[in-house]
Amino acid sequence: MAEALDLMERYGSEGVVLLAGGTDLIPAMRRGAVAGNYLLDLAGLGLDTIEESEGEIRLGALATFNSLLRSKPVQVRLPVLAQAASQIGAVQTRSLATIGGNLCSAVPSLDSAPALMVLGARLRLVSKQEERVIAIENFFLGPRSTVRRADEILTEIIVPLPGTTFGAGFLKHGRRKALTLAVVNAACALRPNESGEIGEVRIALGAVAPVPFRVCRAETLLVGERPSSELFAKAAFVAGEETSPLSDLRASAGYRRALSEVLVRRALHYAWREATGERGWGG
Fold this sequence. Notes:
By secondary structure, this protein is of the alpha+beta class.
């Protein structure tokens, strides 16, 4: 790591491209979308570990999505992340693609970002001069743009253990049932309070704005309320109104906005059932 940071400091201003799994980077370089004078392979830095300790799960930035799916702590403690990881590319892609590389690609349709946002994940960025930890929702600046500086390496993703009275779900819709980019993806997490009301909620959407983002107005609407189909439908409508999608070859803006409402409503029902086991009033 010390050698890598030396190289980043020495050549960062001249354009250093970091190589993790390469499943997004190499095709982008071939078509001229990414350019740099130096390519720095991070494979030897030991950043592929997955560890549970002191109320957190620490995901090395070079942990592949297949390793997340095989990890017992992720399967048991963070099933919403496993749901998202299982829908990223094909088996061959998941064997190479890394969670850190996925986040640093910063495409609006990232599947990993909404799941990590509702889990309250933080990212550790390290340079030769300093180390900083930031909330994941503050990482993205725009399409293909993040707050990571030219001399920094994303080393790990820190996810607090959510505990038992917690439920979360991830949903994705694409033009095919598999091997597809998200037209819209959504993740929701809920925690009830002792009175059976919604004590904590996080909602995140992808592919409907320049960056994946938390849906704050819809979250505020839910906190302190007793859950119902009507309440979740209202929050989902507000979530759809918070989006700013574009029309492209895969979907129109109007379709994306309407689909956001559908996925948020379904994910809220799923998350509440996971948290409480209640299944009697819709879904």
